[in-house]
TrEMBL record:
Identification of the protein by name: Protein kinase
Record SUPFAM superfamilies: Protein kinase-like (PK-like) (SSF56112)
Keyword annotations of the record: Kinase, Transferase
GO molecular function term, any single one: kinase activity
Amino acid sequence: MTDRLPDSEFLNLVRPFTGSVAEMRPTERGFMTDVLVLIDGDLGRFFVKGVRNREGGRRDSLIRERLVNEEVRSVSPRLCWHTENDQWMALGFEQVEGRPSRFEPGSPDLPAVLDLLGRVQEIPLPALVEDWHETGWDAFAADEAEAQLFRGDSLIHGDVAPDNFLIGAGGSWAVDWAWPTRGAGFIDPAFLVLQLISAGHAPAAAEHLLSECPGWSKSDPQGIDAFARANLRMFRHRAERYPEQTWLRAMEATAQAWVEHRSAE
């Protein structure tokens, strides 16, 4: 994320959709996006997300987020407009009144978080996602047989985290659909388990919270075991590669605790 407000060229691009800007505020969210701002303009109030219009992952993720929005509007803010030029690509979402959820033990947000996850899992797999297979953990699976356990027909958000599950007086929202994929139904619940352990839950307590989630309770435990081990390998690899990113070591310890719990069972 940049803490800078967007330049005049970006504002000129979005002005036909926002109108004259009365107020513009950077957000606290997002690490892989060049522009994240809340804009109040003559034509409405928007959450605006922008990336440099060059080939690569950031551009691809914004395209996916644009394409999938109509399919996930039951749980996500509505995309109001999109635009691009040679330099920038931008999405304009409706602003919602929500804050990042809290995952720690005893958080009053947990029922809403679990409800929101359940609503995400109820969304039928959109046709446009059918070929977007989840392969992000294949490199960290023990072998091809384990990697196949991550395949499935569920719509995967892929980044279940406090900043992406917003809670408000008027509802709750799953935001940042940057990499929707098709995969096993346990993947998003497993992300939540990891986040819950990281927030202070014991592994058994974190899994118990997911016991009523069909994507978790009806899945093959061997697939969850393999996914837990793949996450441990991934965080260990990245922590070694980027030692200055101390949060990676913390997540490695979280994944280790989860693997040990599942191995003991």
